[in-house]
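During data preparation, a discrete fold description was generated, and the record follows.
___
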Amino acid sequence: MLFTQELLDQSSLLRKKWEDEVKRVIAKNPDLKPNWTTVSDLEIKRIYGPEDIANMDFEKDIAYPGQFPFLRGCQATGYRGKYWTFRMFSGMGTAVTTNERWHYLLKNGQTGLSTAFDFPTLMGYDTDSPKAKGECGKCGVAIDTIEDFFDLTKGIPLGKVSTSMTINPPATILWAMYCATADLQGVPLTQISGTIQNDMLKEFIAQKTLMCPPEPSVKLISDTIEFGTKYVPKWNTVSISGYHIREAGATAVQELAFTLRDGMEYVEDVIKRKGLPVDSFAPRLSFFFNSHIDFFEEIAKMRAARRIWAKAMKERYGAKDERSWWMRFHTQTAGCSLTAQQPYNNVIRTATEALAAVLGGTQSLHTNSLDEVLCLPSDHAVQIALRTQQIIAEETGVVNTIDPLAGSYFVEALTNEMEEKAWEYIHKIDEMGGMVAAIEKGFPQLEISDAAYRFQRQIDAGEKIMIGVNKYVIEDEVIDIPLVEIDETVEREQLERLARVKRTRDNKKVKECLEDIKKACEKGENVMPYCIEAVKARATVQEICDVYREVYGEYRDPGIY
């Protein structure tokens, strides 16, 4: 218990006096609104005090940074020894232009690389596929073969810079390209570091870049975890992502619960399917959260996430290695909070969300650019977004002490509430037979859909405020910012490049490699070694994905209504 009974009794008397004063004040000046809630509709009391966290145990529930349950962070020194990784999301047009953006960001102080892929690549199709027409490079970089990857990584020391790749169905292939590129550069796999998102469960729940059914999709993820455990020890082979769950309309509690239960599903599959001890792979699992606009809710969510994961790994899965208990996570500010209206307001939104992520203890951070709701970010916009992180790190003083909000009655109470509600969801999914079974029943999808509908109704009714959208609106607003556009020449150049690779490669060798991948899929073998050989032979993303589709089948989202 945090407080003595004497202190709690004293607090109770003081609270009674305060409540009497509140009654007197609000009789003349009523509250601005009848209900005070977070963005996610968690009720917020007028004030919090010792009685709201009286049942907490300091050692068990809070402790110090670097101590179980890691509520206050995994690192004993917080940001004093090292800032979080400044990792701006990049991906535009061709591999050449994305490489230029990478070098621009590194020159401006970025400390880790990150890339988004275009929609055809995300879905496992080459640029010359009819399904890809008109989409080349529009929402990220187009990658068809390892030749594109050579251009993407030109001048980048792969053994010294960590790289994050937001890729899901074709994650085995893109990671194989990265591994093969490092090998061809003479960089040992033991030296490369980074992350592949590779979280297919959240695709079925939220983002919907789908290829194969859930079960074989999870198998491919376990393949990467096993391969990384054995051969690429510095790589995070899955980034379990709540970001897209939140972007789809989930509440903060739903994002927390569904993300962590996805992570538990992967742990269980690797133990069962691969027979690996939990401590052999758990330290390299990583997470990815959304930092939304409700400042304290987001901080509480991140603190609760660490405590839930530490408890789950230690008590549920019997992990003995302290690093297995750590939750390491990247954060991105909320894309869904950005507005096309009055886009310069997005700078303030992003700064607030970034500050919440830092106070929540993130290890890595992307800050959205002010123009992302309208186009791919310009150099100027992305520089402002990067400078936002740098100002928070080096000017504000928020990194001077570790977890400065610890002990706040409000923050601790909100953290406890979010943990409790998240565990309720986790136990409910357990009762359904796990996350794959829950997805097949449509449970998380429907929960998110209902939450998104409820929030939109609140926006439409003015119950929740978005400045420039439903309050302080500028009629006939003219958006006067430069827009980055990807023109048709990008697709034409990419098609020419792909055709040239197909003409000059050893097609017999490619066919043999694809057959090897097919046999591995049919036998349940790990596909990673075969994918590496295939991409070295210049097999394309789609050619390998077509093998997956042939063996495992294609998934069609059944919908939820």
